[in-house]
Amino acid sequence: MSRYDPKEVEPRWRARWEQEGVFRTRAPREAGGKPKYYVLEMFPYPSGAIHMGHARNYVMGDVVARFKRAKGFNVLHPMGWDAFGMPAENAAIERGIHPKGWTYDNIAAMRSQLKLLGLSIDWDREFATCDPEYYGKQQRWFLDLMKRGLVYRKESVVNWDPVDNTVLANEQVVDGRGWRSGALVEKRKLTQWFLRITDYADQLIDGLKTLERWPEKVRLMQENWIGKSQGLRLRWPLVEPGPDGSDEIEVYTTRPDTLFGASFIGLAPDHPLSEALARENPDVAAFIEEARRGGATEAEIETGEKKGVFTGLYVRHPFDPQWKLPVWIANFILMGYGTGAIFACPAHDPRDLEFARKYDLPVLPVVQPPNIDDPINIEDEAYVGPGTLINSRFLNGLSVETGLAAAIRKAEELGVGAASTVYRLRDWGVSRQRYWGCPIPVIHCPRCGPVPVPDKDLPIVLPDDVSFDQPGNPLARHSTWKQASCPSCGGAAERETDTLDTFVDSSWYFARFTNPDASAPIDRDAADYWLAVDQYIGGVEHAVLHLLYARFITRALADDGMLDVREPFAGLFTQGMVTHETYRTPDGKWVEPTDVDLKVSGSTRAATRRSTGETLVIGDIEKMSKSKKNVVAPEEILGAYGVDAGRLFVLSDSPPERDVQWTAGGVEGAWRFVNRVWAEFDDLVLGDDAPTDSAAAQALRRSTHKAIKAVTEGFESFRFNSAIARLYEFVNTIKSIDRAAVGATARREALSALARLISPLVPHLAEECWTRLGDTGLIVDAPWPEFDPALAVDDELVLPVQINGKRRGEIRVKPGAAEDEVRQIALSDEAVSRHLDGATVRKVIVVKDRIVNIVAG
């Protein structure tokens, strides 16, 4: 028997697949009436290297693609590169490399690594978002949306890094400093380009109800991000006019039922009235500057210390003009939500309460919890539950829900407010002050204003001759590229030097894959055939922004006539991460696993650095990450065990939505299974046949058809680990049989099924087994095995028997046995009779084919 040699076998089969164009996508007219299936993994950023953490995502998609292909579908399984972004510019700055060269070199390296994994990808459809052929088409539909009014330009407040001279997303501001430069971030007003995603807010919420094959948590995250709320816009008259001449403050609240618990009015630091006050009051100006250096994300604001400054202003309560409340500026109020002003009810809002306790402001409860007789007393925790309104004048005695509606009616009757629907979602700011991105196809003319670039002049291609020797956007300094003539008047003008947010690039790539060579941005016929994507796979970290923007752009392009579908991804699966132990030197430097020797003695583990001999610190088990060097490259697995063993391991040790820890022992176990399978085919002597109705042959046939059923169901439901577990059982069964008693026919049926069942998981091994079995053609083209329902059911079931809730025995019955028959068998069982010990049987509950419960006493 020969040892399985993946170093020889795997490259040979990959070359055969490529030579025969096995994975080239068939056009609809070539598909022979097969149903279509579009499987797509979120395309990678070309950072330079693929590791086995990335591989899990792509292997999952490959299993689905190969399985659906075998099931008779016409499969589209493409790959591309999300190639624009800041890392390439950082490389240019730090290493003196052009972003374009750095990106395409990385793409070449990562493509080679992905091909090592044996993925069934149609590489003829590959593109990168930095290809002018791609982003030129993006510029075209951007201008189409501009004509429809979905693109506009306005001044907005941004996080500005004064060292890198660029706008930062909130997530890139850490403790008030730029994530890369470390400089104190400034709030600046810049003129930015926006997409009107808010026009689609209701559609995006309603569409979530149709996405039945999306994880519930992702749908909830999107709904919360859009944040539709219904409440009251209410005007609070100022006792004295503000320095900007304002005579009232408008707030938006979702809790008008608590208006009589109001303690103060709060303004966002960037509220117009706050800024007017800052121009006259140094204390206010200093506080606003401090607030701008604080946390920028909602999570940071929520968990950070609540701070404020009193403005010296007061307002009158809209329901009682004699009641005056102070006006504060607070760091936890966001200008981007509602009106940028709140009324605070500390008794029933945790943030308001923290602020009120800090500054000794009133706390008046106005909601009495149900089933509590004593008056509510608020100390360190706000009450946010249901109840009856108290201390609320005309609202007293009403429930929270009824009081909310009554307060809105009262405000409208008095003419001081109106019911209103507000969204947390803001329009999408897409301007980025950087070079390596899609140029915004607009020309600025001093006489005509912003003018779209004519179609005939697209694409607007990035210039190659740029310099990164000083901070800021090289396009803004490029004296020739930015000079242009106005398409309207012909006068001297300048190109827009901002580029598009990279989320724009990834918002439509799935549609371009349907025909990447089309002259239009999207080939409507191809898109109508392939879309929506049947199975989309990626990390849950993209649950909101990428997926929300893709859903929005799909709807916008559909309204523009480019698409028919309104939801791009029919099915979504969010996979878990691959984790690995981390290692550090005593001075804190990360060390790669390949440079680590581990010694285990009992429960004690010690690590030394292979290259230097120094003792290492064994750290936490964390997501594979290049920054922490706890990665395993496909090449390492190829050299030691073969890629198939690595593919098998990342899918076998835990459910696919959970994290899996990479261990040497785990991949060695997968490698042993590969060799156990190969041994059955390498030692292939089918021998003489035996009657197919013999007991041994029938037993093997039942095992075969049960395995086909279980593995098929596992693949269909994304339970890859369960499918693999059944394959392990099936291989054990095949190895344990008496070959002479089983005969050649039943054994060949079992081995043929086994080869096809493992094919999506370990495709190279499966091809080698198929050849050894003597079957013609490639196993990748072979149909999926079908199971016989009569053979796939158990001929006997073992049912547990409980007496008064405790397991006291088990019985054997035929599947589907009648309730009376099961009851009689259970009561006749010796162990059951012994435990009943003469007690009266009051009830016997039979759950068909599952369990028997006896109530006795």
Features:
globular, 5-stranded mixed sheet, 36% helix, alpha+beta, 857 residues, 4-stranded parallel sheet
Q: What this model shows, in words?
A:
36% of the residues lie in helices and 21% in strands. The chain is built from 28 helices and 34 strands. The strands form ten sheets. Strands 27-28-29-26-30 form a five-stranded mixed beta sheet, covered by helices on one side. The longest helix has 22 residues, at 695-716. The model has no long low-confidence stretch (mean pLDDT 91).
Structure at a glance:
The chain is an alpha+beta fold and 857 residues long. Helix content is 36%, strand content 21%.
User: Gap between N and C termini, in Å?
Assistant: 64 Å
Class per helix and strand makeup: alpha+beta
Unreliable spans are: none
What is the number of beta strands?
34
Strand content: 15-25%
Tell me, briefly, the overall form. globular
Q: What is the spatial order of strands in the main beta sheet?
A: 27-28-29-26-30
The main sheet comes to:
5 strands, mixed
